[in-house]
Automatic annotation (TrEMBL):
Coiled-coil region list: none
Protein name: 3-oxoacyl-[acyl-carrier-protein] reductase
NCBIfam families documented for this protein: PRK12429.1 (NF009093)
Organism: Potamilus streckersoni
Keyword Oxidoreductase: yes
Residues of the signal peptide: none
Length: 260
């Protein structure tokens, strides 16, 4: 992976940050983008600069805004005129509400960040990958791409759309040495889940770890949460030569949840 250039959206926290760290450990140059105050972002950049012998940049971008996405693409292309090698469309949001009460602006944000932004980014960077004859596009979907739950209809719609986009791009890019896959995690041990577990623990008068196990991990037949480092490991595999013939796949990492 030495010298490969990876752009990871939503990489200032959670799954995206874990993926960025794993790729940097294996020699990738990293372009970070995501939300956060400047102090936190500077701290992350400094961490990468001190911990890994790779080039790292942070490029801001509001994935809800097409003009901001264009500026993000232009800035990354200025940094790397021959384009990037790996695109991780990882950014996403969550909002749970019944469909007849779902705020329209939340729907718009959900579709913009989870589906439209990946389209724009793939559209911009795929030609560079095709010219190089090698590339990896990996989209973070969800187990909710193939199932749903009350309050999660828009989330499922966005993630199912991302899986569809993955399949079509995989077919178009296959002859150029570029693969496109989706990873579909189940309940992952992220900051978002930590916050949900904390609220439940206070409500139920149990520990946060007990809440994680009772309300989330127990839903997986494995009885375990998906770990960020496991998702990062899957990304590393998909970027390796061993995955040259893995394309158009939706790889479930849900502890068996969706096969029940």
């Amino acid at each position: 992976m030495d010298g490969k250039i990876a752009l990871i959206t939503g990489s200032t926290r959670g799954i995206g940050l874990g993926i960025a760290r794993r790729l940097a450990e294996n020699g990738c140059y990293i372009v970070l983008t995501g939300l956060g105050d400047q102090q936190s972002i500077d701290k992350i950049v400094q961490e990468f600069q001190s911990s890994y012998s790779v080039k790292v940049n942070f490029v801001p971008g509001d994935l809800r805004d097409p003009s901001s996405i264009r500026q993000l693409c232009e800035k990354v292309t200025e940094l790397y005129p021959e384009g990037i090698d790996i695109l991780l469309n990882n950014a996403g949001i969550q909002h749970v509400a019944a469909i007849d009460e779902y705020p329209v602006e939340k729907w718009d944000d959900m579709m913009a960040i989870s589906l439209t932004a990946p389209f724009y980014l793939i559209r911009h960077f795929l030609p560079y990958m095709k010219k190089k004859g090698w590339g990896r596009i990996i989209n973070t979907a969800s187990q909710m791409a193939v199932i749903s739950a009350p309050g999660k209809a828009p989330y499922s719609a966005a993630k199912a759309g991302l899986v569809g986009l993955t399949k079509g791009v995989a077919l178009e890019a296959a002859e150029y040495g570029v693969t496109c896959n989706a990873i579909c995690p189940g309940f992952a041990d992220t900051q978002i889940l930590e916050g949900q577990a904390r609220m439940l623990s206070e409500k139920m008068n149990i520990t946060c770890e007990e809440a994680k196990q009772k309300f989330f991990a127990s839903k997986h037949p494995t009885q375990k949460l998906v770990e960020i480092n496991q998702i990062a490991g899957m990304v590393l595999f998909l970027c390796s030569p061993d995955a040259d013939n893995v394309t158009g796949s939706s790889l479930m990492m849900d502890g068996g949840f969706t096969i029940q």
